[in-house]
Amino acid sequence: MDTDKTKVQSLIDKHQGLKKNLIAILLDIQESFNYLPPDALRQVAKSLGMPLIDVCGVATFYRAFSLTPRGKHICLVCLGTACHVRGGPKILEELERKLDVPAGETTKDGQFTLETVACLGCCAIGPVVVIDGEYHGHATIRKIGPILTKYQKPQAS
Amino acid sequence: MKHYRAHLLVCAGTGCVSCGSFKIKEALEKEIKTRGLQDEVQVVATGCNGFCERGPIVLVQPDGIFYQLLTVGDVPHLVEEHLLKGRPVKKLMYVPPAEKQPVPKMKDIEFFKHQRLIVLRNRGRIDPEKIEEYIAFDGYEALGKALTEMTPAAIIDEILFSGLRGRGGAGFPTGKKWAACAKEKATPKYLICNGDEGDPGAFMDRSVLEADPHAVLEGMVIGAKAIGASKGFVYIRHEYPLALKRMEIAITQARENGLLGQDILGSGFDFDLEIVQGAGAFVSGEESALIASVEGKIAMPRQRPPYPAQKGLWGKPTVINNVETWATVPNIIRRGADWFQGLGTETSKGTKIFALVGKIANTGLVEVPMGITLREIVYGIGGGIPDKRDFKAVQIGGPSGGCLPAKLLDLPVDYESLTAAGAMMGSGGMIVMDDKTCMVDIAKYFLNFLQDESCGKCVSCREGTQRMYEIVKGITEGEGKESDLALLEELAQITKDASMCGLGQTAGNPVLTTLRYFRHEYEAHILDKRCPAGVCKKLIRYVVLSEKCTGCLSCKKACPTEAIKGTLKEIHLIDQSKCIKCGACKEACRFEAIEEQREEAIQII
Amino acid sequence: MAGTKKLRIQDLAKIREKTKSLMAIREGEGRARVTVHMGTCGIAAGAREIMEALLDEIGRAKIQDVIVTTSGCAGLCNKEPMATVEIKNQPPVKYGDLTPEKIKKIFVQHILGGQMVAELVLGVGSETMY
After folding, report:
1. A130 belongs to a structural domain
2. Which one of B36, B103, B357, B358 is least enclosed by Cβ atoms within 10 Å?
């Protein structure tokens, strides 16, 4: 898959092509492409005039970045302490069973990427599952099936 | 702005937004229009109100009536009854646990009654996206005073004398930090606001940024004047989209109104701010790591000294304070150091915000004077433990903190007392745990978090957290040995002693405090192969209690592995060879007929 | 609002002055509280017009720390529309058989001037408000 070079360049330019804005640039690329394509990383390194290894270092250090394409839906399970004591790990296990992927990976059909997060700060409604930015609070094992079905259905467009 | 007879303050903090508060706001606006009340009643979206457990929340002023757990369906009735006919709607009010009568007014609800709002004074009161509302409640008054009536030295003296200490964790005196940076000759100087709130279970910084971004901004401009900085950065984690948005709006408005940029308030002082987004790394909350991250690099801490006050961002003198600290500053300047001195304890002045979460009836964000006891917070404000269970511990200070047991409930909450007890103030997360929480599992949880988040620079931290995690994991799986406990203590101590930054230096705390106060639980896991709380999977099995089972088939339907046998109205049975211990059956049972039991117990029966 | 105008210290005070009274209501405070009774009977008798006239008057006078609320039927349906005026630290005063003109008079004479409009008063003191 070819990466849209003009798009990447426009994101680099948006941040004045400055080295200090590397994280912001990568965040924007990730948002546009859903992950960090290798070509884009090379282009960023070249434009900012820094070694590719340093760009890759940042891209692998921070949790927000993914070097592999992610699914159509991002399913995020909060494993903060409050969610943990309220049963978050059981919710994650149920999702791993239902989606048949371990945390951090994408389903074979490319529909879902299952990810965990250390805390979303909405501890009052824990355990929390966030799918495509939509919060599902007070999650229980039984609620997981119906929640997933909502996203599995082909959207009538 | 115009005069309305009633203001509906809809909480739009992340907690309530997740529960659909924007939909409530829309529905209110629509209904008010239908009733022709749009010129009489105003709907305002405010920052986090604090009582997150009860969201979505709407406060009706001037009556002070507190509505909670609202749904869109409640809105027409609420508008007709309360706003048109003036009859507050009882069934939407808060009813305290174990009581029958609702408490109509916010100020009478226990959760709010004992709080002392200074940093959060504008929460649930102003629209954080409107600068004029911030100004209306004395906003930027302190800045005016600092820029026109005070010298930089006078500002620093005021902060020093107030006794304010950093609210991000270690509690270093803010005034000292500023003074150290002010005397440096090198220019330019920088300011950073640390909004990389990484402690799981803590969300006060997010809440302050969402509810009152101008307070943070005002504090930073005052700090800039004090140390002579011309540029500042607000570092916010990307997991906080709402906080990022509100801060962006606040900065734009402040620039438009001449409160940022050149010649601020006509005083001749220049200062500007920029937002930097974090990208998800716990260690970037450490100040030298945060500086690296602002520079666009890997967030790896470096050796100190030199401290950031001497050599910080791009090698220049830099002051880093946490969100809550910055938001406290305008209050001190406006009301005076004497006033602030009068709050709190001998060594810990002022108030502190805590996120009260976990197994607690009233989850939410509370601001209380330093020195208040844990008991007052957990039982007075928090309403105690739900489901009639027993309090076991409260975890304070995030992964660097510790678990304190019931016998320490009367401990005053201040920097020194918490540290002496083996925990720390940290950013102020308080996770309450009941008898169904396994303390060994909690230690495992934090170690897993720390070994994952350790940046890897120091061997002691990288390998120490990893090894401790493996040992504790073994214990939870019934593979623990008696010698493990001494080894854990040794490893925890070495990790503390030999690591460079705060992450490693405190990484042993979760293990050390659970060993100190809950050693018997470790021993139960190791010697009896038993998890007293019924949490550790390898040491429990699920069984059906025949005297309680009604044969309703609920658990059978819920089981993902078809491990449950039985027909309608017959007592069910769990086939242990198929059971994966997911707990779905227990969740599905309405008769409390499924229980976790220790492996051994089953064999005896 | 100030728009893109750069503020000076004195402007801050002006904005505060202007908006503070509008916001006083959020604290549940004000120099006076007027309750317009809005039961079905009150609304039928014209309580909405009374409310509008009152809010109008308050807007015109540019003093905004007067709190206006509604309440249910006051129990004296034949005297509707009715309103209760509470000045800080004084017992509440009930007025009945109101018209927009009468409420304007009450606003000027009682709320602003501190003098009860004796000929319109139904009662003083009695029940406390919610």
Report:
1. yes
2. B36
B63 pLDDT exceeds 90? Answer: no
d(CA B427, CA B195) in angstroms, rounded, equals 11
Are A82 and A142 found together in one domain? yes
Which residues does residue B249 pair with via DSSP β-bridges, in sequence order? none
Chain A CB contacts of B357 under 8 Å are: 81-82, 123-124, 126
Chain C interface, best mutation among B44, B63, B112, B143, by max C CB count within 10 A: B63
What would the mean pLDDT of B496-514 be, rounded to a whole number? 93
For chain B, which chains pass the contact test of at least 3 CB pairs under 8 Å? A, C
User: What residue in C sits closest to B268 (Cα-Cα)?
Assistant: C8
- Give the chain B residue nearest A140 (alpha carbons): B587
Contacts of A23 in chain B (CB under 8 A): 276-279, 293, 296
The CATH number of B439-527, from 1.20.1440.230, 3.30.750.24, 3.30.300.110, 1.10.3720.10, is 1.20.1440.230
Query: What does the DSSP assignment read for B418-482?
Result: HHHTT---TT-EEEEEETTS-HHHHHHHHHHHHHHH--S-SHHHHHHHHHHHHHHHHHHTT---T
> Which of C4, C5, C6 best tests the B interface by mutation, with the highest count of B CBs <10 A?
C6
Closest CA to B503 of B308, B188, B290, B351: B290
Contact (CB<8Å) B62/C8: no
Alpha carbon of A37: minimum distance to chain B alpha carbons (Å): 17
Quote the pLDDT of residue B87: 86
Query: Quick one: A148 and A84 in the same domain?
Result: yes
Confidence check: pLDDT of C2 > 50: no
**Closest residue of chain B to A18, computed from CA coordinates:** B296
CB-based contact B85 C39, cutoff 8 Å: yes
Single pTM value for the model: 0.90
Give percent of chain B with pLDDT exceeding 90: 78
Q: C-alpha distances in angstroms, B254 versus B220, B224, B590?
A: 12, 15, 55
Q: In terms of domains, do A46 and A96 share one?
A: no
Superfamily of domain C25-124: Glutaredoxin (3.40.30.10)
What is the DSSP code string of B544-575?
Answer: E-TTT----SHHHHH-TT--EE--TTS--EE-
Q: What value does the CA radius of gyration of chain A take, rounded to a whole number of Å?
A: 18
The mean pLDDT value for B234-253 works out to: 93
Across the interface, whether the CB atoms of A61 and B281 are under 8 A apart is answered yes
Compute the distance between CA of residue A82 and CA of residue A126 in angstroms, rounded to an integer.
7
Tens-digit pLDDT profile for residues C27-63: 777 778 888 888 777 788 888 888 888 888 888 887 7
Distance separating alpha carbons of residues B256 and C61, to the nearest angstrom = 31
pLDDT bin (cut points 50, 70, 90) of residue C4 is: low
Count: domains in chain A: 2
Determine whether domain B131-341 maps to CATH 3.40.50.2300.
no
DSSP letter for each residue of B112-161: HHT---STTTTTTTS-TT-HHHHHHTTTTHHHHHHHHT--HHHHHHHHHH
ipTM above 0.85, yes or no: yes
> Are residues B132 and C19, on separate chains, in Cβ contact within 8 Å?
yes
Distance from CA of A89 to the nearest CA of B (A): 10
C12: chain B residues, CB-CB within 8 Å: 135, 140-141, 144, 265
Residues A80, A43 share a domain: no
Per-residue pLDDT at C75:
67
Instruction: Show residues of chain B in contact with A122, CB under 8 Å.
Output: 14-15, 18, 52, 203
Ranges of each domain in chain C: 25-124
Q: Does the CB of A61 have a partner CB in chain B at under 8 Å?
A: yes
Domain at B6-108, CATH from 3.40.50.300, 3.40.30.10, 3.40.50.150, 3.40.50.970: 3.40.30.10
Third-level CATH fold of B540-601: Alpha-Beta Plaits (3.30.70)
